[in-house]
Design goal:
Layout: H1 16-24, E1 32-40, H2 42-55, H3 61-75, E2 81-84, E3 87-90, E4 96-101, E5 107-112, H4 120-135, H5 140-151, H6 154-169, E6 186-190, E7 211-215, E8 219-225, E9 228-242, H7 248-263
Parallel strand pairs: 4-6, 6-7
Antiparallel strand pairs: 1-9, 2-3, 4-5, 7-9, 8-9
Helix pairs in contact: 3-7
């Protein structure tokens, strides 16, 4: 019997394009959930000015987003998770990975440990110093790994990446002197520096990081303040979240706590 051509009961007649599409795309398997929030940064920008004057550090919106995300996971430790051997386990610390642009649109990154326990000026200082090392070529471990991977034949590179991923996350073995959990609890990347108001970043398959937050370019927009509509500097924060770690209930908890933390940055 030809099962492929067998008519199903109540089968719908479809267009040639839909028939073609059903053969082109496979069943969905990507666990990514996408969402965004808009934030009035009026008070946040006053806070930044005040903190810069007090500390001498160049505090930015990106630092605030990373700190708020770290504080959120710090207060919701049951949602600060990593997947090992198919099981979700709590992480031992709240570490945030900040992506850094170091010339020509090339990206590297810096993981800041224990973000929930550090002041924002400490985060800014540590990120500045480590980012400078990358830009000046002093962060030899990361740069040498990037160069090595860039020169490898693709088949060997695929095998090596899978092997390093397994050794790092499943067995907890450090590869080439790099951190055994190099990407931490969540990632933050600023797409606003490229002029983008909103963007979504992919989940990195070789990490066990279930949250990737994007920081957009601030734009003046009409915003409801009380009963009035006023022009306000609005920031769009995008998020890509791994559905294997969180369902809608958990995402709601994270979002509510994150907004609470963001709104706490006032002068």
């Amino acid at each position: 019997m030809d099962y492929k051509n067998k008519k199903e009961k109540n089968e719908e007649k479809i267009s040639p394009w839909r028939n073609l599409a059903s053969q082109i795309w496979k069943h969905p398997y990507d666990p990514s959930i996408y969402g965004f929030i808009e934030v009035d940064t009026t008070e946040m920008q006053k806070y930044i000015v005040k903190k810069r004057e007090e500390t001498g550090e160049k505090i930015t919106i990106t630092h605030i987003i990373g700190k708020a995300l770290g504080d959120t996971l710090g207060e919701l430790p049951h949602l600060n998770l990593i997947m090992r051997r198919g099981k979700l386990v709590r992480r031992e610390s709240v570490d945030i990975f900040f992506q850094v642009e170091f010339g020509g649109g090339q990206l590297a990154g810096v993981k800041i440990k224990d973000v929930d326990k550090k002041k924002i000026e400490e985060i800014a200082r540590e990120l500045r110093e480590k980012a400078q090392e990358i830009r000046e070529g002093k962060e030899k471990k990361m740069l040498s790994m990037i160069k090595l991977f860039g020169k490898m034949p693709v088949p060997i590179l695929k095998v090596l990446l899978r092997l390093s991923h397994f050794l790092s996350y499943e067995l907890g073995i450090s590869i080439g002197g790099l951190d055994k959990d190099p990407f931490g609890s969540a990632m933050v990347t600023n797409v606003g520096i490229f002029g983008l108001e909103i963007g979504f970043a992919p989940l990195f398959p070789l990490s066990r990081t279930p949250i990737v937050a994007t920081v957009g370019k601030i734009r003046l927009k009409p915003f409801i303040v009380g009963e009035n509509i006023e022009p306000r500097p609005i920031l769009t924060i995008g998020a890509t979240i791994d559905h294997r770690y969180y369902d809608g209930y958990h995402i709601a908890l994270l979002t509510q706590k994150f907004i609470e933390k963001i709104e706490g940055f006032r002068a």
